[in-house]
Design a protein that fits this description.
Order of helices and strands: HHHHEHEHEEHEHHEE
Shape: globular
Strand content: 15-25%
CATH superfamily: Vaccinia Virus protein VP39
Low-confidence stretches: 1-24
Mean pLDDT: 91
Number of helices: 9
Largest sheet: 7 strands, mixed
Strand order of the largest sheet: 3-2-1-4-5-7-6
Number of strands: 7
CATH topology: Rossmann fold
């Protein structure tokens, strides 16, 4: 019995190192707390509707051109990732029709409530509101033809994990369209430089490293502060 004690002690001491090997740390956050304000239970949705859907926002003024650039057609299945107040939910739903599908993905509880009400009030039967996570869009594998991110990519706290989830959700040959801010120190507005963690070149490299192929940069003349990139999932 005495001889067994050292062996038992060695086994116990070895357990922590085995546990570390079995459970490696995940992707670190690239911008801790970037979405905290959207998770607040008392978030004022009407205030954000004013910000997201006001004439002062270039995205809002260019919404029709952006939707045209998505090359939508009847029957497509689209993931509107970070759907927010639903600015693009309506026109995308109209473009894909009753035989299509729009997954309005959001992490904000208050925005989710708003999107559910929007779906009901406007009878958008092809819309499904999805509660996404910080590391995953929570969409089923091979469930969408297009993933659309408008001013959303810079809010990805764990971009590698999110991009991996979008690749899984996309059908073979599916597309990812990213609209985001041009971040050029010395040229871009100060709030963009402070709010957006990196510029177009960095975000493009991250998406390419996730296995996507860059198809083109779409030119929308009225979008002075944003770029539009189209990628394909091989």
């Amino acid at each position: 019995m005495k001889a067994a004690r050292p062996l038992l002690l060695i086994a116990i001491l070895a357990l922590p190192s085995l546990r570390v090997i079995a459970e490696p740390p995940g992707e670190p956050s690239v911008r801790p707390g970037v979405n905290d304000k959207y998770l607040e239970p008392n978030l004022d949705v009407e205030t954000w509707i004013g910000r997201f859907e006001g004439e002062s926002r270039q995205i809002f003024r260019s919404r029709d051109e952006i939707v045209v650039a998505l090359n939508l057609r009847e029957g497509l299945r689209v993931g509107d990732i970070g759907a927010g107040t639903g600015l693009f939910v309506r026109p995308i739903a109209a473009a894909v029709g009753g035989n299509g599908k729009v997954f309005a993905v959001e992490i904000s509880p208050r925005f989710i409530e708003h999107l559910e009400a929007l779906k009901k009030n406007e009878q958008l039967s092809q819309v499904e509101v999805v509660e996404g996570g910080s590391r995953s869009a929570k969409l089923a594998a091979n469930s969408i033809d297009l993933a659309f991110l408008c001013d959303v990519y810079h809010h990805f706290e764990f971009p590698s994990a999110m991009l991996a989830s979008l690749r899984r959700a996309l059908r073979p040959g599916g597309e990812l369209v990213v609209v985001d801010f041009k971040r050029i120190p010395g040229q871009s507005e100060e709030w963009i430089v402070e709010h957006v963690r990196a510029g177009q070149d960095v975000f493009t490299r991250e998406i390419l490293d996730a296995g996507f192929e860059l198809i083109e940069e779409v030119s929308i003349e009225a979008l002075e502060d944003n770029y539009v990139l189209r990628f394909r999932s091989p």
